[in-house]
Amino acid sequence: MNQERVFKVLLGPHVTEKAAFAAENNQYVFKVASDATKPEIKQAVQVLFGKKVDRVQVLNVKGKTKRTAQGLGRRQGYRKAYVSLAAGETLEDFTGAE
What we know:
It comes from Billgrantia endophytica. The protein is an alpha+beta fold.
């Protein structure tokens, strides 16, 4: 994977209460590109943070249907990844942790 793709795979941290609980168990949650694969996500985290990744789980979050003044609208969906780091590895500068 080229260097440019590494920066386009991870879009940012997904900061929620559930992500904060996952960070206590050495799992970190990221919003990722919709076409990102597990090996790409793993390599991007290893390159950008310099940490050893144990496993990656990805899921697609469907956009919610909402009522608007013009009728029904739909929010855009996104893809997120739960990244489990190897034992002894942590992301100190991660906003969802601690």
